[in-house]
Input
Amino acid sequence: MKYFIKTFGCQQNKADSERIASAFTHRGMTPAKGYGDADYVVINTCMVRRSAEDRVYGLVQNLGKLKAKKRAMKIVVTGCMVGLAFRDKTGKYLQSIRERMPEVDEFMPIEEVGFDNQPVRQDFINAWVPISNGCNNFCTFCVVPFTRGREISRSYEDIIEECLHLKSKGYKNVTLLGQNVNSYGADLLVGENNIQVMRDLDKTYFSEKANIHISSQSLGDGMSHKPVYVKHLGRYRIPTLFPYLLEQVAEMEFERIEFFSSNPWDFSDELIDIIARNKNITRLIHLPIQSGDNTVLKRMNRWYTTEEYLEIINKLRRKVRGIKFSTDVIVGFCGETGEEFQNTVKLARLVGYEKAYISMYSQRPMTAATKVFKDDISHAVKKKRWQILEDLINKPHLKRHQ
Ligand code: SF4
Output
């Protein structure tokens, strides 16, 4: 029996596909060269934009034609679309994908795959290592908290073990992956409802208990640490272990360690210091801004201002020689005025990003923006704004003339 996996979307999905491959290998199957010779086709889906979802519907339709000609091919759909379908308590989304894709034999939640087996990697130099899954932040435009659920951190020891294994196999580079790596470990320390727990705590908690130590066993390095409390708008927020994890992986002497994605509101001073003192940690930091306008950021439920964002950039520039930045931007978010967009352009000029992943806003099911705001910027205006930023940030030959 042979399997073929088609992956849509981000690096996290690609890392998940390596673990899906592992699960199939453990069932005694081998990889197929393409759809044509596969007994099982697994489609790992993405929902970040409507276009990604539409591509899945198109592919399943084409596979349906192949399946009609070919013997017993099975089509399995997993990833974000299935995650949302199983989390939508009304059952409407599951019903709608079942109706739109009758060719599918199984809708498989990605959680069924798990971390138990070693991933089947195609690359023998660079490895992705998932450290957490899901997100607690509920940015109003983003479907991820609904597709992947609440943030769950993988055990510290498991991650360390996987990285040591990669080192022993000769891997040179690792990328630590999560929707928000900076808050890694919060649930391990204060439970799954960590943000709520921390918000509801009395202020004195932090003066009295901020120095609690985590047992050396849970850190896996025989040392005692206290968690880093990540601040938000001058208030303590949640404890995280990410700075320690990053440093411990850096000390394994890989040539390069990257981490992705990393939200501005959880970017601690401790993390900056650790990047500064470990030269094998990437000097290209991905720090999603999404918009360079404070009122748009508020509508997006992004918990930082452009001033705070620039403060992180400046701190990193002061402490880390040769640091560069990449980012994510959404253009044409609900109600984005010309002036608000120009603030994003100004901020992009100020930071001088190396690269940006620019997307035109599209409504996503279950998100607050879809429920509360109007998607009122025309496609033509979104496209124009997208082009302006694309030329400014991602076209180096044009950059020289600006
Ligand atoms: S931080 Fe915001 S944009 Fe990123 S995954 Fe979470 S909800 Fe989505």
